[in-house]
Amino acid sequence: MADTIYVLNGPNLNLLGLREPEIYGSDTLDDIAGRMEDRAKELDLDIDLRQSNHEGHLIDWLHEAQARGAKAVLLNAGALTHTSLALYDAIRSIKTPVIEVHISNPLTREEFRHESFVGRAARGTIAGFGALSYMLALEAAARL
Length: 144
Hints:
single chain, about 140 residues, alpha/beta
């Protein structure tokens, strides 16, 4: 599984394309997944894209990525980014590199979004480029 990139998405990201399009754009998670899968093939990589509204699922999937020898994890934890010490601990407990991904730029939004527990544990962060943030993170992960 060394050629697999996990793409994990947290709460409310199942609503992309419908939820606040002025912030998150009109692309759905399926739209993003399709583009990522096409690019991953060009890079000789596989994508394992998942979404959950439950913190524990994200933690389990981070552990699974480590256990299965994934090349990297791209993590858009949604609002859990700003609140979850459990995700911070999970990222710190695995050796698999994690890249934090955000469609919007949290630093230009409400004050409570300025702190990222995920970012403190992640290898790097890509934010503010809309759906393109995922593609930029994939390119970075491919080069790790």
